[in-house]
Amino acid sequence: MASCTVRRPSPLVAVTLAEDSVVEETLRQLATAGVRLSMDDFGMGHSSLLYMQRFPVSSIKLDGSLTRAVLTNSITANVIRTITALGRSRNVKVVAEFVETAAQRGALVELGCDIFQGYFHSTPLSEQACLDHFRQHGQQAALHC
């Protein structure tokens, strides 16, 4: 495994990975080093549940298609509710990406999502803007960068 120097406490570092990029030993080493692992596009691939069982993920990010359909498709809402229940049972945070409206956020809160990302909260931040936001708002700000 490649080494690197981190100038911030490792619990503030999160690595997002798509299901097809999972490399078991590297992930275990990262988790052992205190890096939080987040599985991206959860719920759309055939391997989501298997990877959640095999790897020490601390959060899962819902596939954007689920977030986008939460207000218009009751089956999608039930899928999200089931994923959040699974997350709670494994002490895994559920991140809703592509949140663009207050109505979406409200529905996702009711369905049990823990963290929200998208234009409703912020436009994408440059590296410098993210660092400035982090310095100004502390650890909680790491969730938005």
Automatic annotation (TrEMBL):
GO terms, molecular function: cyclic-guanylate-specific phosphodiesterase activity
Pfam families, alphabetized: EAL (PF00563)
Boundaries of every EAL domain copy: 1-138
Family matches, as CDD domains: EAL (cd01948)
InterPro entries: Cyclic-di-GMP_PDE-like (IPR050706), EAL_dom (IPR001633), EAL_sf (IPR035919)
Protein name as it appears in the record: EAL domain-containing protein
Organism: Paraburkholderia phenazinium
